[in-house]
Amino acid sequence: MNKDSKIYVAGHRGLVGSAILRKLQEEGYTNLVCKTSSELDLRDPLQVDSFFKNENIDYVFLAAAKVGGIVANNEYPADFIRDNLLIQTNVIDSAYRNGVEKLMFLGSTCIYPKMAPQPLKEEYLLTGELEPTNEAYAIAKIAGIKMCESYNRQYGTKYISVMPTNLYGVNDNFDLETSHVLPALLRKFHEAKENNKPFVEIWGTGTPKREFLYSDDLADACVFLMNNYEGNEIVNIGVGEDLEIKELAYKIKDVVGYEGELQFDTSKPDGTPRKLVDVTKLHSLGWKASTTLDEGLQKAYEGFLNYLETEKATNLVR
Ligand SMILES: NC(=O)C1=CN([C@@H]2O[C@H](COP(=O)(O)OP(=O)(O)OC[C@H]3O[C@@H](n4cnc5c(N)ncnc54)[C@H](OP(=O)(O)O)[C@@H]3O)[C@@H](O)[C@H]2O)C=CC1
Ligand SMILES: C[C@H]1O[C@H](OP(=O)(O)OP(=O)(O)OC[C@H]2O[C@@H](n3cnc4c(=O)[nH]c(N)nc43)[C@H](O)[C@@H]2O)[C@@H](O)[C@@H](O)C1=O
Question: Domain named NAD-dependent epimerase/dehydratase: which ranges (predicted)?
Answer without folding.
Answer: 7-238
